[in-house]
Structures are given as structure tokens and as C-alpha cells.
Amino acid sequence: MHWSFLLRIIPLLPVIHGQTTSSKRGLVYVPNEKHRSDDSIWVSASSDLTWYYNYDSKPSPAFSNSTKLQFVPMLWGSSTTFLDDVTEQIKSGANISYVLTFNEPDGGGSTGGSAIPADTAAETWQREVEPLKKLGVKLGAPAVTGAPSGFSWLQNFFNACKGNCSVDFIPVHWYGNFEGLASHVGQVRGTYPNVTMWVTEYADNNVDLKESQVFYNQSSQFFDRIEYITCSRHTKQRLTLGSSYITHYSYFGSFRSSVSNVGPNAAMLTEKGQLTDIGSWYLGGTATGKKPHGAAGRIVVFAGSSIIVSLASIWNLL
Description:
Layout (H helix, E strand, L loop, with lengths): L2 H7 L16 E3 L22 E3 L16 E2 L2 E2 L6 H10 L6 E6 L14 H11 L9 E6 L4 H14 L7 E7 L2 H14 L4 E8 L5 H16 L3 E3 L5 E3 L7 E4 L27 H6 L22 H13 L1
Parallel strand pairs: 1-2, 2-3, 4-5, 5-6, 7-8, 8-11
Antiparallel strand pairs: 9-10
């Protein structure tokens, strides 16, 4: 199917509101040192989350006793210990099936990116990541931004690898509206048609509550539920989205609205630590009616995990 066709029929799709579940959903873990009790929300009995990552090579102590969430290590930037860290976990019995690599390497440090040159990343990959292939670990490509620079950086990375980087899946980051998300996913799919995809950061940032909720419901349906679209009375087109090649996704919003750098309405928790409608829906529950509120003047355009963690730390001191 041509992606131009998909983009034309997206506005015609019925949006499924409210409770849905999916084994594809994971957690982008952003700790809150002041409110550690928030961590228990993500591993509650009713949560349908199955995996998490924390931008680090080692698991978070908050989930050390959890059997619900599978940890996915990440090589955030340049490292000389990643291979040892992951290998040690595997030897100790941990179920490490996947790894992520290089968070937004085409982005600068001020926006949360690892800002690592493509050739340096290729060299680091071959030393710290590629050996994990022999241990049965599936390897994620560098998680570039959704900007055009991401495609250029990733092409430079593969050129520098010279065939020595065995990528099993492509992570995708996107911040913006649903039409942009669908278009970007299509462009990634068109560029790398034979590789599965993880959407490891996404949200519609700095929009009103209704827009955030509509985006959440549209994107969840996009990832999970699209199978057939009736094109006329007599024909059907099959959409191979989500179920066929988007195998994992993780919404960026696992923090309180008061420290959200993607706008308070994208957050999954209110400023009091209660699940918002989006938060409850993402965990497989029903709407809570709890509306998020933010801190005026504290919202910035999304800049990555390091910025949100810093904002949370500053907020805790106020």
C-alpha cells in the first residue's frame, strides 16, 4: 500500500476511545526522587505494561522485585562498559532479549541528545553492542530524532559500520500531531522496509487536553488495531501497521504534569500523582476524570530524558 493513500484515509478512521490493552506497551521510566511511590503505579496488578527502559545499561532498583516488566538496557552515548554491564546481567540470569542504543545522537546535549558523531557511534557499536548478537540479544539501531537530521545521521552511521552493525529493529521518536507521526513512521518504513520498528518516544507536545487525548487514542489505534480499511463496496485494502512490524511502543509521559517538558496535558500523572485519563488508558484501564495541571513558565519544547529528570529535580527543591 502507498503511504499517500494511508494519509488520505487516516482522518476517516473511527477513533476508539477509552480502555484498550496491548502487550506491545512499555515504560519510558523517568524517576521522581521526591515521589518514589509513583513507581508502584507502573507495576500495579492492573497495568498491562510488559517492558521498560531507563536510558541506562543497568535496571532501576524500583523494579528489581518486579516480574511484570522486562528490562531493556540502553547504550545512551559513548561507553566502554556497556558490553560488560549487559553480559553480567545475562550471566546472573536476567532475561535480556533486546538492547537500545544511542539516544538521539543527532541532537545536542541541550535537547537531551547524546550528540555523538556517526563514525564514533559505529566504532562503539562494534565494540560494545555487536558481540551481544552471539548471546541471542536483538539489537536496536540508534534512536535518532524525528527531524530530517535523524535520517542523515543514521545513513552516515550505517556507512561507517561497513556492514558490521547487525540491526534487528529501528527505534522511532516523534513529537507532534498524529498526521506527522503516521507520515514519519511511513518514511522510516520506506527507508528500512525489512526491519521491524519500535516507537520508543512519542507524544503530542504542548497542546490542549482534548488534542492530547485524541492523539493518544489515534496513535494507540494506529499501533494496535488497524487491520482492514474498506476502500469501496467491493474491495478492501489491508493495512500492515502495528501488528506486523511495530512490535513495541512506549509513550513519553510517565511523570507528573507539574514537571512535564512536553506540556502538562501529555503527562500520565497529575501534579498530585494520580493517573490521568491518558495514563489510565495506557495501562489498560478506564478514564479517571483526573485533569493534569502544570506549572506556568516551566514548560519547554521536548528535549529528552535528561531535561525532564533535571526539571523534576528542580521542582522537588521548590
